[in-house]
Amino acid sequence: MRIVAIHEATIFTGENRANAVMNFSDMTTGLVAVVTDVIRDGKPVVGYGFGGTGRYSQNAICRERLIPRILAAPDKHSNGAGDNLDPFAIWDCMMSREKPGGHGDRAVAVGTIDMAVWDAAAKIADMPLAAFLAARHGSGEVPDRVPVYVGGGYYYPGADHSALQDEIRRYHDDGFKLVKIKIGGAPLDVDRRRIESLLEITDSSGLAVDANGRFARQEALSYAAALEPYKLAWLEEPAYPLDYALHAEVAQCYQGPIGTGESLLSTWDARNMLLFGGLRPDRDILMFDCALSYGICEYIRTIEAMEQAGWSRASVYPHGGHLLSLHITAGLGLGATEAYPYTHQPMGGFTDGLKIADGLVDVPDLPGIGFEGKSNFAFEFRKLV
Ligand SMILES: [Mg+2]
Fold first, then answer.
1. What is the pLDDT of residue 111?
2. Which residues are catalytic?
3. Is the pTM of this model over 0.85?
């Protein structure tokens, strides 16, 4: 059993909206298709992966380094039983000759291919990825549905409070109960009015805010003090992603939950955040993004490190808003998944028609990750092979 070809392409995913640190108008993502020598219904089993949301395509790294290494080592592709791929061995193959540390763009590239390898492996086992993961790295049980929240409330050119309220009402109509909006892209007073306009239509436990790591020390502390009385669901990335000391300082003065970790791209970064970021296992939320941080193999190592540090899997809400995050939430027993029902297309959101109600989303039952059941995304992947 082996991988016989890996195809890749970069697609444009630009949308005219912004968070506190960046505009998304020229965004891209990388797609890969991992073709195996396993034939089902007369066709090879193909696994698909993409480069996550919110960071640009890193397919140049896939093309120049990772794909040649995989294709040059066919003896590393199969598990010991010879009945499926070995994602961890393929991961090691990608990372051979790579210097330790210095994560970032390489973590996205490895995550892109790792996703496709796991998709192929779950398809070879004829299981949804969630069930495939639960059997190997979870409790063995897959819930029928998992908690879900919307990452939305971006800054749109010319949008006012009523447009923001309409956006959040639309999510409520779609079955979501918890919504996250951006802060830090406007002065504090403006952000407070954005929050207060939404607290007219939702209670505080249904609203979280995300500063995307933009604040320096004084602004972080000012926001924390100003937002504390609202008792929001959480305050996300109140400090630069790698500023563990400022995270600790905010956690000292902000009693509500803090969410962070989506921009930590390796197990090592996650361990440092848990060691030095002052986060509190009884309330804070870890948002490591699987697609952006070396993929599922590394995510499993990150969860082990987190559990060793006294954290529960229920504290993990993977960032990303897409099918991979949903599958790992269900399969690894994590707390909740993000969703991007209308943004970050075609990657955002889940399979077409998947039921969302009362703040819970069903777990898809297609083999693998199930990109084939998301028509706008399947259209892009079909062009690869
Ligand atoms: Mg965020």
1. 98
2. 182, 319
3. yes
